[in-house]
Design goal:
Length: about 240
């Protein structure tokens, strides 16, 4: 198999394109999301950014194979064959998962029944969905099974629980900055349904502390205490 007839300039161009894909979507994920204050826009960008990134990577992979095919069909077929041989199942779930999430949107907190498995959607990964059963068991099911075997999907609000926590911080703390930090911390917790957002209300100071009442959505009331414990790291009950 000969690689000599593949221009170095083409390889450099492809590497530059891959670099910019990483930079652009990394910027959105790690910088832009932190400065977006509008809750719905923040949730929208947070959910769809990985999906658009997946689509761009798929298009990039297709373009790489296309360019290689024009120059060296043998190399192109070899690369395609290796990719399919090493990860056909993952590739199929990756593609189906991307399509599924574009079609269904954010279904965190919804009840899913997939043949003998039933639970509430706690996470949506690139290739699989994570379900939390009533007994606390975590199940990971590939999108290929979700699409072909799902039998029920009731409304989200029926299964979500509301958690309330009061946090006390020093009076000298900046109120808005403290609220933003608490909100960011909550939305990064796996037990909080981020798509439903959180509400932080200022209460009257007590015992020399600024009081904040926090309301959030969770899949199970048992998770409220876990959230409370983590929040207590930065404050007092």
């Amino acid at each position: 198999m000969e690689f000599d007839n593949i221009p170095t300039t083409l390889l450099i161009v492809l590497l530059i394109r891959a670099f910019w894909i990483v930079v652009v979507f990394g910027f959105i994920q790690h910088i832009l999301l932190k400065v977006i204050r509008h809750e719905r826009l923040h949730d929208f960008v947070k959910f769809y950014n990985p999906l658009f990134r997946n689509v761009v990577w798929m298009l990039f992979a297709i373009s790489v194979i296309f360019h290689l095919a024009k120059i060296n069909p043998t190399v192109s077929l070899a690369v395609l064959g290796v990719i399919l041989a090493l990860g056909w199942q993952s590739i199929r779930d990756f593609v189906q998962g991307t399509i599924f999430r574009f079609q269904k949107g954010d279904i965190l907190g919804q009840q899913l029944k997939v043949k003998n498995y039933s639970g509430v959607v706690s996470k949506m990964h690139n290739t699989k969905i994570e379900l939390c059963a009533k007994n606390g068991e975590i199940m990971q099911i590939p999108y290929s099974r979700i699409i072909s075997e799902v039998t029920t999907k009731p409304a989200t609000t029926k299964h979500l629980k509301t958690g309330n926590v009061i946090v006390a911080l020093p009076l000298e703390s900046n109120v808005e900055e403290s609220k933003n930090k608490l909100k960011e911390q909550l939305l990064n917790m796996p037990w909080v349904v981020s798509s439903k957002g959180v509400t932080i209300e200022n209460l009257k100071p007590k015992n020399g502390k600024q009081q904040f009442k926090i309301a959030f959505s969770t899949l199970n009331t048992e998770y409220v205490e876990r959230v409370r414990e983590l929040l207590m790291v930065n404050g007092e009950r």
